[in-house]
Amino acid sequence: MSGWLQPRDRDPVGRTDRPIRITVDGEPVTGIAGQSVAGILLAAGRTSWRTTRSGAPRGVFCGIGACFDCLLTVNDVPDVRACRRPAADGDEVRTQSREETA
Ligand code: FES
Q1: What is the pTM of this model?
Q2: Are the C-beta atoms of residues 60 and 44 closer than 8 Å to each other?
Q3: Which carries the bigger pLDDT value, residue 27 or residue 5?
Q4: Are strands 77-81 and 71-74 parallel, antiparallel or unpaired?
Q5: Which residue spans within 1-102 are E strands per DSSP?
Q6: Per-residue pLDDT, 2
Q7: 46 ligand 1 Cβ < 6 A
Q8: Residue 70 near ligand 1, beta carbon < 6 Å
Q9: Mean pLDDT calculated for residue range 68-80
Q10: Separation of 13 CA from ligand 1 center, angstroms?
């Protein structure tokens, strides 16, 4: 387990992280203020959240906003790069496939 997954009350560094909650396809997922949407998804164990036309899974590839592999819908705005979008408490995230936006 990496350090950032330590519960705050047991963290020896004494972080003051503020927890946030988003929903992903209607399912509640918790994160920490300042994390990207992709960071929260990866911490929750999701490595892919989009599919290509061929059905191939996609998630984070570059992690710096260059490849557009991590697209999803945030608060009804499609094609948001999950690696670049800071998560906000209450964000409603939906996974998407190319068929939805084509
Ligand atoms: S992972 Fe490449 S743009 Fe997000």
Answers
A1: 0.82
A2: no
A3: 27
A4: antiparallel
A5: 19-24, 27-32, 50-51, 57-58, 71-74, 77-81, 92-94, 96-97
A6: 55
A7: no
A8: yes
A9: 96
A10: 30
The preferred substitution site among 50, 70, 74, 95 for testing ligand 1, maximizing ligand atoms within 8 Å of CB, is 70
Ligand 1 closest atom vs CA 59 = 1
Cβ atoms 92, 77 nearer than 8 A: no
Q: Which of 35, 46, 48, 64 best tests ligand 1's pocket when mutated (most atoms within 8 Å of CB)?
A: 64
pLDDT (0 to 100) of residue 11? 75
Contact indicator for 89, 33 with CB cutoff of 8 Å: yes
- Which residues, 6 or more positions from 44, have their beta carbon under 8 angstroms from its beta carbon? 24, 29, 31
